[in-house]
Predict the structure.
Amino acid sequence: MYKLIRSILFLFPPEWVHYFSMNCLKLLCSIGFIRKWISLAYAPKVDANTVFNGFGLAFNNPVGLAAGFDKNAKYLRELETLGFGFIEIGTVTPLSQAGNEKPRLFRLPKDNALINRMGFNNDGVKQVAERLAKWRKENENSAMIIGGNIGKNKVTPNEDAWKDYEICFKELHHYVDYFVVNVSSPNTPGLRALQEKDALRKILLHLQMINNGKAVAKPILLKIAPDLTDEQLDEVIDLAIEIKLDGIVATNTTIDRNDLATSETKIKAIGAGGLSGIPLKKRSTVIVQYIAQKANGMIPIIASGGISNGADAKEKLDSGACLVQVWTGFIYEGPGIVKKICKSL
């Protein structure tokens, strides 16, 4: 059934379809008995066998939704209804920004992949925090874990990036369960330079200092690019162990375009952006495995990249991850993806 719906939706521009689909789901979930039916149909059952404890948090299941899907925390109820074990909102920046020029999201159906160059488009941290505050107040009994993915504004120079991360961290601290520091998107000029050890140390140590002064400290994770060299990975791992970082999200999208089924002409016409989906699966798994082995299991890993089914999720978990995130797989496989993965696991 979803394949038929998808074939129709894929006739329209990807970014428009994203908001159209989620707004339709929002409308359906506003009707109590329909929301209950959707939950019964798509959400996995929660029991002692599915609950995972990590980062000092209890996740209903190990399948989460990666950042970039619900940038502004507008669809939390709807995504909870579909059974996600955790939702990562953002990437959120201090000031609202429109992002890059449209079109900026492209489908590669032959590869079960997407290319995006969104550019951290979001409503700004204050508005997102207000939305989260309202959600928390209205859903006090919700067990869903919410992560806050934070970044810097495009106009902020790298030497001042730590200030942007501080602003987002402070504004969201009361409302999210964990943080992910995003320095690995390929769509903000110069951002990936912040993955260098000294720049990273400055940002992460500053956030940890603020965190330690809070009544309840929140786990801080780092999201890394799949395009790092082994030497760069080693530096990230060494730093993570040195400062006792709570975890790593591996990985963000890739700038690599090798071995795609999509024609080279179409790829060139699309241009720059981060590639996600099945083509990222192998590299993402390699990095998860590398971190797990190099750190000897000392760094918890959330695996993201190329997960479409239970076998993909199991591969990531067997490679050393403790949780998995989907995004592109959700687009191609549909609303039943969480239940299918959990059943398979």
